[in-house]
Every structure is written in C-alpha cells, then in structure tokens.
C-alpha cells in the first residue's frame, strides 16, 4: 500500500509561481515512474508531468513545457513540481500519482 499526500497549492496571480510537493509513505518509490495530473472544474483529469525513478527521464504536457519542472528525491520519498509563469487555465486540483495510487489532491487557483 502506498499513501500519497500533496501540499503546496494555493491562490496565485497569473505569471506567479507555486511549488507543489507530494510525500509518499508505505512501500518505496523504487522503480516506478511518478507523475502529476490536474483536473480543472468540469473537465477530465489530465497529465501534467512525469519522471522516472532515476530522474533521467522527464515528460511534460505541451501546455506546461518550459514553465514547469518535475523532480523527485527518492531518499526522502518526495515528488515535487515547480510551476512558473502560471496561467489561469492552470487552475485545478493537482494530483500526485504512482502506478494505481493517487493522492487526495491540492487546489491551485490562478487568478487573471
């Protein structure tokens, strides 16, 4: 069993930055990709970014490339997402994911 707990969401003006974190407990993070997803009001959950266990492979949605950075610290069992130049369309609940496990999400609101 794996528990994922996100933190760091909040309200920010367009153009601002936020840093999200995901703390994992239970079974280790080893050998698994981890990722961030978001769900805007009235829309389906969508992929934001993912990272391999070694951090050697990162993938981003086109909409966030060049503005978001995903990272992980396997020793601390944490996953991070640095979000810069935020846009109003980035508003939503951001979820941490590993395999079949999801966190409860953290709300990000970007005002215009």
Looking at this protein, list some descriptive labels.
single chain; 112 residues; mainly beta; seven-stranded mixed sheet; four-stranded antiparallel sheet
Summarize the structure.
With 112 residues, this protein is mainly β. Helix content is 0%, strand content 54%.
Write up what this structure looks like.
The protein has 112 residues and is mainly β. The chain has no helices and eleven strands. The chain has strands at 2-7, 10-13, 18-26, 34-39, 46-51, 58-60, 68-73, 78-83, 92-98, 101-102, 106-111. The strands form two sheets. Strands 2, 4, 5, 6, 9, 10 and 11 form a seven-stranded mixed beta sheet that branches. It has a four-stranded antiparallel beta sheet with strand order 1-3-8-7, with no helix packed on it. It is globular.
Radius of gyration, whole Å: 13 Å
Percent strand: over 45%
SSE run: EEEEEEEEEEE
Instruction: Give the class from helix and strand content and strand pairing.
Output: mainly beta
Which regions have little confidence, pLDDT < 50, spanning 5+ residues? none
Task: Report the biggest beta sheet as strand number plus sense, adding barrel if it closes.
Answer: 7 strands, mixed
pLDDT averaged over residues:
94
Number of strands: 11
What is the terminal-to-terminal distance? Answer: 40 Å
The general outline is globular
Assembly state: single chain
Relative helix content = under 10%
What does the secondary structure layout of this molecule look like, with pairings?
Elements: E1 2-7, E2 10-13, E3 18-26, E4 34-39, E5 46-51, E6 58-60, E7 68-73, E8 78-83, E9 92-98, E10 101-102, E11 106-111
Parallel strand pairs: 2-11
Antiparallel strand pairs: 1-3, 3-8, 4-5, 4-9, 5-6, 7-8, 9-10, 9-11
